[in-house]
Amino acid sequence: MILAEKILKHRKENGWSQEDLAYKLNVSRQSISKWESGTSIPDIERIILMSEVFGVSTDYLLKDEVGIVAKDEEYTLTSRDENLRRVTLEEANAFMEFNEKHAKAIAMGIVLCILSPALLILLNHLSEEKIIDIGVNIAQTIGLVALFLMITTAVTIFIRFSMKMKQYEYFEDEDFELEYGIAGIAEAKKEKFRPYHEKATITSVALYILCALPLIISGALGLSSTVQILCVVLLLIMVAMGTFMLVSAIGINSGYDKILEEGDYTEEKKFENRKNEALSELYWIIATLIYLAWSFYTSNWGFTWIVWPIAGVLYVVIIKIAAILRGGNEI
Known about the structure:
By secondary structure, the chain is an all-alpha fold. Helix content is 75%, strand content 2%.
């Protein structure tokens, strides 16, 4: 049994969380996590203290373990704990509260972008078919005004909340340690949020799959063009609903991951994200331009939304390729 397994075994036998053990050893929770995963090894002073805490001998802990390092040579966060930014309970609570508002606001901004052409599509058709007593030019003008107002509102939301989120960027970009008790609070909140996160993900995927069904059925049955246009509007509404649920749920959950340095916000992932930041910004700007250009050129807003799921899949592929190329260059 290697040291990592022994630390994990004795911690669980004592009924301690990683945070509890970190408090007893005067290190960060992240250090305990790394020791237990075997990605790093504690210094000899921590080994001695650990033997006292667990009530075992240092020989037992060190047996079968190779590479115990001196205090001044330790690779992990332990030797750097005193240099890490220390997050207080007040800071953590303020971040979690704001992150929930931020996630919902960003989701609403995306919803406004998705729904922005709906009125234009509907009024343009109704005026062309003489269903409403408004000229085509007036109908298009009203629709375009609504579209630009919604896009402007969405952009305002993105800018406003992005600027406010800057004060918490260190959760995403820097290494830090939490005051005692914060990790437990964040883990409890994340666990409580988990059922909604799962429900939102399943529901949004179902909406994405089913959104085109009314349009397909209306076309197959040869229903009037007005019915088909209404189906296009319904499609946009369903996509918007699914997007709001998915984006807000992912955003809120990622806030807990940032505090706990889990998922996409581990120390290693933060390093990778910093490398990918410029590429990500350029990629999504290009995706947005393609969507708007294609949509305005074809006026087929009921179909061009497909850009976003495709862009999402391609983004993952591009990031993986970038990581492989960087790895090759480093070699």
